[in-house]
Design goal:
Length: 308
């Protein structure tokens, strides 16, 4: 069993209402989708750039995610348990549905995810080499998120126009106009794990993982943005039948780019890798991810009809 504790944002700064009003249709579209859906299995890159931007209540999202991973840890294992003499390769396809909600005036989201794909691995257990592969559907997952601290849920256009990211999660730099938007994000998290009583016939316990990721993001046009990302993992020492392993102390660097295909679709591409991974006990992982997201909101559809 896995638990994750992640803080939410506190507003810090104010920007020009006039500038935001000029680009508000794009703002509605962008904030209606971002932060609704990043599935657990895609989180080796961390939560990702712009994940904690809140969406307009009532927005619906259908994501399709293609993820390729390789390294010395099972990509289905959020504890990143390192098996030094091993190599895993996975190709995952994920699809689901998410909805932005308001719970007692707080921003919330609920999502469901179905995973399919293939996984192959070569490892050494008790001095014996083993190779195994698998494919098919994974277990469906349901996620629920609630913003406990920060601005109230955005239920209408005025709420959206007044929305102001701020430290400690999202810090806007300069103008909030859609084609000039720049953010610096610091996302701390703590992962807690229950015991695994059937780890190759043994019992494994895992210490908590402390994770810090940072993102410097920039809009180059109203529909195109990119981000330079970094993540640091510490902890996660695994103990198998009383024998303790090494704790993680690893850094990963990533790059993300997003492009708005039209008023209802966005394409995001990301690539990244751990960098201090020369020792067999170091976490080693590479990832390439493509996400196509289709989203809609009654306000967005009404604007399109009026524009037509």
């Amino acid at each position: 069993m896995t638990y994750v504790l992640e803080p939410t944002e506190i507003p810090l700064t104010r920007t020009s209402f006039t500038k935001r009003l000029a680009g508000w249709p794009r703002v509605v579209i962008g904030l209606a989708v971002i932060a609704l859906f990043v599935p657990t299995l895609a989180r080796a890159q961390g939560d990702g750039a712009r994940f904690y931007w809140k969406g307009l209540t009532g927005a619906s999202v259908v994501p399709v995610i293609f993820n390729m991973k390789s390294g010395n840890t099972n990509p289905f294992d959020p504890a990143h348990t390192v098996l030094g003499d091993s190599n895993f390769d996975a190709s995952l396809m994920m699809a689901g549905f998410a909805r932005a909600l308001a719970v007692s005036d707080r921003a919330a989201s609920v999502s469901v995810l179905v995973t399919m794909g293939t996984l192959s691995g070569q490892t050494v257990v008790d001095g014996k080499a083993a190779t195994q592969s698998a494919g098919g559907f994974g277990d469906p997952m349901v996620q629920f998120g609630l913003n406990l601290v920060g601005p109230k849920a955005m239920k209408n256009i005025p709420d959206l126009l007044r929305y102001e990211p701020g430290l400690p999660i999202v810090w806007q730099l300069g103008s909030w106009a859609p084609e000039q938007r720049t953010t610096l994000e610091f996302l701390p998290a703590v992962w807690l794990f229950g015991p695994n009583n059937d780890f190759v016939g043994k019992t494994m316990t895992t210490d908590a993982i402390f994770q810090l990721e940072g993102h410097l993001t920039r809009n180059f046009t109203k529909g195109f943005w990119a981000s330079l990302d970094a993540a640091w993992y510490s902890g996660g020492k695994a103990t198998i039948d009383g024998v303790a392993g090494e704790k993680l102390n690893n850094v990963g660097l990533f790059f993300t780019a997003g492009y708005e295909l039209n008023a209802n679709a966005q394409l995001t591409v990301g690539y990244g890798s751990t960098i201090n991974d020369n020792d067999p006990s170091d976490l080693r992982q590479n990832q390439f991810r493509v996400t196509l997201t289709y989203f809609w909101h009654p306000l967005m559809e009404g604007m399109k009809r009026l524009g037509g």
